[in-house]
Amino acid sequence: MRLTRVFLQFLASASAVHAQSDKHGPKPRVLERDVCIIGGGSSGTFAAVRLTDEGHSVAVIEKQDHLGGHTVTYTNPDTGKPINMGVIFFHDLPLVRDYFSRLGVEVQKADLGSSNTRYLDFATGEAVPGFEPASQEALGAALETYSEIIADRYPNISLGYELPDPVPEELLKPYSEFVEANGLQALVHMVNNIAGANGNLWERPTLYGIKVFSPMLLAAINKGFINAASGDNRDLYRGAENLLGDDVVLSSTVKRVERSGSGVEVSVDTPSGKVVVKAKKLLVAIPPIKESLRRNGFSLSAQESRLFGEFQGMLYGSTVLTHNGLAENTTLSNVGTHNPYHLLTLPGSYGYSAEPGTRKIKNYYGGTASDIGMSEQEIKDLIRGELDNLERAGNIGEGEPEFEFFVNHSPYHVHVSPEAIAKGFYRDLYELEGQRNTFWTGATFVDEDSSLIWSWTEEYLLPRILDSLA
């Protein structure tokens, strides 16, 4: 009897030990690196490649099962051809060409295509009475005037947000006032189309209107753009995955970020177990929205919390659908009947573009900061409503949309109020670089443009990280 009792006690003890072992799980895989990078999109991947080339070890933490961020591709089953539904083209710059070459990806001059464009108000389905896009002559004159203004007043605004102090009043006023004061009305639709998902452009601070249509973008328009020769811009990130190999931790969820004077420690969960990255420096390459960072295990300083709490992002994404009523090789562009400059009503689609030789329709949608919480179903219902309006008005044929691809890039064009800008927000933001062994990067610090992000990283951020590691 006593032996039985002892044996049962032994079993209970062993069971408790086993349960405790299960609770803690297997030991995490520990990576010791010079730099831990959270975010494997455009900015994080470029920084990882460049730091590797400079002889430093990195670990890239990415929540998706691949690198690339907004660079997403849909392969058309009708033709087998890739359709870029995120990043479509890149500036033709030596830095960009060198980066593609480094990753073994050939480039080609981008074909921006041409089609029969019709301008319709998707909210009503009707054409806008009296609306005509700007003539080439008017557009050319406006571009020349704009170029002169930017070169004269804001020559240093292309990369980043290193603004004069105090910030010029003109940059804080609504973009519509800047347009009217300088006779740039012919330019507005071009800016809004190129810089999609910029909210109601006419009421945004002029700073953001200029940032999305920067001098470097103007130069690129004149020179032309490039993309992957295969037509699939994801090739760039496949090349990066091959180069970085085991230094990339995919499908990961950041659980805890500890930063101190001696370095950083980042704990993540992955499908294959826990990973702990111990590094000298941390590079954050995800949108610095306060609540998002906290969900990712960040303990923010008072200054970080104040600054990141100011940020808001826009709704933006893309879809591919089929619809029997949309003609091939036709583009429908959304214009607003009652809005300033006849810009589209948000939330809404920027346009529908039929792929040549196929019934696949590309669609880009967007909204303001207040629309960012829209669900996938709500966005699809919005698109269905627009197509119903166009069909009812007789501007497209009968059909029912079938969605074959959907992606939401929100938060997009992360921004702050003009009041925050006036108080030196971007000056204070840039002062965070290097504090607590942490650096920050991404579109929020430059613009939603991979080529500009890479240029800013090369010229501004990378030297600072390298100096801190010396």
UniProtKB/TrEMBL annotation:
InterPro entries: Amino_oxidase, FAD/NAD-bd_sf, Zeta_carotene_desat/Oxidored. Residues 1-19 form the signal peptide. Residues 44-390 form the Amine oxidase domain. Pfam families: Amino_oxidase. Coiled coil: none annotated. GO terms for molecular function: oxidoreductase activity. It comes from the Eukaryota. Transmembrane segments: none annotated. Keywords: Signal. This is Amine oxidase domain-containing protein. It comes from Lomentospora prolificans.
